[in-house]
Design brief:
This protein is an alpha/beta fold. The protein folds into two domains: about 90 residues, no CATH class; about 100 residues, no CATH class. The protein is about 45% helix and about 10% strand. It has nine helices and seven strands. Strands 1-4-5 form a three-stranded parallel beta sheet. A two-stranded antiparallel ribbon has the order 2-3. The chain has a two-stranded parallel ribbon with strand order 6-7. Strand 2 and strand 3 form a beta hairpin. The longest helix has 19 residues. It is globular and about 45 Å long.
């Protein structure tokens, strides 16, 4: 998220890890659930102004390039508006483009459906991001490519409604039991840059889960 101060530090870390897949989260704003409605914490541009959304997306892509010296391997949006257009202009893969050929982690999973319902109401459901919960989800993955969407982090996170859960995600993702489960189930962790190869293999029926 290049609009935030930590973007400079993140870019420095990425330079020392050339094999790291690095994406851009285009930041159009954030919303919180209050009085039975979603209200903006902040808005970068009006969400009903397609031209402004496109201009802001391209501006943030340019900042990303300036910080990292490269194009993002994938693009994620806080709004679906203009996502495919910006991805095409950048010559990279937007998350909406990924979804057409792969499975998001929440597909068909009752626990994740509960998480999504809670999230739509602005509620925290920490039991859904434990090591046991993640391992249970892994057992239900279909054949092919699945995206794991998560927001791990440590420290203070101002101007956001998702705070303490980030540290829980770090602990869960680093749990040796989760790693063992991945190995036992034959699940291959990959980067966005690996997707073209994996999607071709998946379509031919030869890819592992």
């Amino acid at each position: 998220m290049v609009r935030w101060p930590a973007a400079v530090e993140a870019a420095e870390c990425a330079r020392n890890r050339p094999g790291l897949s690095l994406g851009l989260h285009v930041d159009f704003g954030e919303w919180t659930y209050k009085d039975d409605n979603w209200t903006p914490v902040y808005n970068v541009v009006p969400l009903d102004e397609v031209t402004e959304l496109r201009r802001e997306a391209l501006r943030q892509i340019a900042v990303f390039r300036n910080l990292t010296g490269r194009d993002p391997d994938h693009i994620d949006f806080s709004s679906a508006r203009a996502s495919s257009r910006a991805g095409t202009l950048c010559g990279t893969r937007s998350r909406s483009g990924v979804e057409g050929s792969s499975t998001r982690l929440h597909a068909g999973d009752t626990l994740l459906r509960a998480l999504l319902r809670a999230n739509r109401r602005g509620l925290a459901l920490c039991r859904g991001i434990t090591s046991d919960a993640l391992t249970e989800i892994l057992t239900q993955l279909p054949q092919g490519v699945t995206e794991l969407a998560c927001h791990p982090g440590e420290g203070e996170f101002p101007n956001t409604t998702y705070t303490g859960e980030r540290a829980i995600e770090v602990k869960t993702l680093c749990d040796a039991r989760v790693r063992s489960a991945l190995i036992e189930m034959g699940i291959e962790l990959c980067r966005f840059t690996d997707l073209p190869r994996l999607l071709v293999s998946s379509e031919s029926g030869s890819a592992a889960p």
